[in-house]
Design goal:
CATH class: Mainly Alpha
Helix content: over 70%
Largest sheet: none
Number of strands: 0
Order of helices and strands: HHHHHHHHHHHHHHHHHHHHH
Mean pLDDT: 82
Radius of gyration: 23 Å
CATH topology: Growth Hormone, Chain: A
Distance between the termini: 21 Å
CATH superfamily: MFS general substrate transporter like domains
Low-confidence stretches: 1-9
Length: 491
């Protein structure tokens, strides 16, 4: 076939609303991620589980989450029924998520103390299975949604908007409304927060299922009939031989570990509530930075569509690294309490600008990662003939979660070292030199180091814009040849 003919048929495009709707699948699971950021306060303050123990449990559960990923990914790849490959896992996963949250927060503290810890672990494990079912689809279904290099990054725009709104409005809702209404992290707060999250996540999941429905069909699954059959034992060979996957996994994972700590509810309390002295400011700053953050996301996606996702990833990484490094120097020099919206000075303006650049550009790699995983999956299909988006997506998640599982443990042990062994720091605690040092390290130091490592790795990432055009042309040509051969056999 001529290159022109191949180029005319190599792209499976989606309608803009389909991309927008499907991106809500990630928002639905991120709602649960957001509300569980506060689970430490429930476990320690209401269920009576010690700080170090709950931190260790959350780390262990994150590891279990990673272990369950390849199993679910394998099942996704093997599924093909009346309702497609992806939608059943989305719906079932969301039902499990909602049910487990209701049980976890309403029953755990009522269980006899001797069985409370075991019960918490079991219900949390069930929750993780549901979370894995739904999140596996976000990565895997990118391959059928669209393979157009100009269109695939558009997912990141919708995802970026939704998640910016979620984490910004969510933090305002908790810090400026729920805390003011309920006085502290108590059952009234958790009931109100969780109820809203469950309802919104259910609606988002239904819309996402509608968005992917026209593409959740066999004709969009890799090379269709000619796709190489894969067994569970093929996980390791795929991971070992797919160099772009390895590099992307390591680069994004270290980023996610750092930002998991930065967004950890305890670190937010330490930064805004203690170091700066105004916890409600966390919501205000988030509201101020929401528009600039969205503009940064739009710019990054526009750059990704023009020059490829690798270049957008790297540029954003270096900008965020510079911002975090400057924030470290700033807080080593100034008194955090001078940052205030009631008397706006140079310190306040500088903090807002640097924090916006750090968070805005820092979240770009994570925003781009889902369409980039689809690129890696297409690379595997082109190279080996295997269509295994579920396995590749969950391999990424497996390694990602093993590393990011360290976040709650690092936070827990860090505060325990400076004396907070029985309870986490709260807005009522007084700032000490030790608390200031730990806050700066957790909020800015570790993110800066992670971005440096991530950037150095991604400079050697193979899947440039030009390389992806070659890959899509190769897949289109193989599909065309397979179709011709199947037609000959049929006749």
């Amino acid at each position: 076939m001529s290159s022109t003919a191949i180029n005319n048929q190599q792209y499976n495009k989606a309608k803009l609303w389909e991309i927008g709707f499907f991106a809500l699948n990630n928002t639905a699971t991120n709602l649960y991620l957001f509300i569980l950021a506060f689970v430490s306060y429930y476990a320690a303050g209401i269920a009576g589980i010690a700080v170090v123990i709950i931190s260790t449990i959350l780390m262990s559960m994150r590891i279990f989450d990673g272990i369950s990923d390849p199993i679910i990914g394998y099942l996704v790849d093997k599924t093909e029924g009346k309702f497609g490959k992806f939608r059943p896992f989305m719906i079932i996963g969301n039902i499990i998520l909602a049910t487990s949250i209701i049980v976890l927060y309403n029953v755990t503290h009522l269980i006899p103390e001797s069985f409370r810890l075991v019960f918490f672990i079991l219900i949390y494990a069930v929750h993780i299975v549901g979370y894995t079912c739904q999140t596996a689809v976000t990565k895997a279904a990118q391959t059928v949604l669209t393979n157009d290099p100009k269109q695939r990054p558009l997912f990141a725009i919708f995802d970026g908007i939704y998640n910016t709104l979620l984490f910004t409005v969510g933090q305002i809702y908790v810090a400026s409304y729920l805390i003011q209404k309920h006085g502290d992290f108590n059952m009234g707060l958790f009931t109100e927060l969780n109820t809203l999250a469950i309802i919104l996540a259910g609606v988002f999941t239904i819309l996402a299922a509608i968005g992917i429905s026209s593409k959740d069909k066999k004709e969009y699954f890799g090379l269709a009939e000619a796709t190489v059959q894969t067994k569970f034992r093929d996980f390791w060979p795929i991971l070992k031989n797919n160099k772009p996957l390895l590099k992307l996994v390591v680069a994004v994972t270290v980023d996610k570990l750092a930002f998991s700590m930065l967004r950890h509810a305890v670190v937010v309390v330490m930064l805004f509530g203690i170091l700066i002295g105004d916890y409600a400011l966390s919501g205000t700053i988030s509201m101020i930075t929401i528009v600039p953050t969205l503009l940064i996301t739009f710019w990054a996606v526009a750059k990704a569509r023009k020059t490829g996702m690798k270049k957008a990833f790297l540029f954003s990484t270096w900008i965020a690294l510079g911002a975090f490094a400057t924030l470290i120097g700033m807080f080593l020099i100034i008194d955090g309490s001078t940052i205030s919206m009631s008397s706006i000075g140079i310190a306040t303006i500088l903090f807002i600008v640097l924090y916006t650049l750090a968070m805005g550009f820092g979240q770009v790699p994570s925003t781009l990662v889902n369409p980039m995983i689809a690129d890696v999956s297409d690379y595997e299909t082109s190279k080996s003939g295997r269509y295994v988006p579920g396995m590749i997506g969950t391999m990424f998640s497996f390694i990602d979660k093993l590393v990011t599982s360290l976040a709650p443990a690092i936070v827990g042990f860090a505060v325990a070292i400076i004396g907070f062994k029985d309870a986490f720091p709260t807005v009522t605690d007084v700032l000490t030199p030790e608390l200031k040092a730990v806050t700066i390290v957790l909020a800015f130091g570790i993110p800066a180091l992670a971005l440096l490592v991530s950037g150095l790795i991604m400079t050697r990432y193979e899947l440039s814009a030009e390389k992806m055009q070659e890959i899509q042309a190769s897949i289109a040509e193989k599909k065309s040849v397979n179709t011709v051969e199947e037609h000959k056999i049929a006749n």
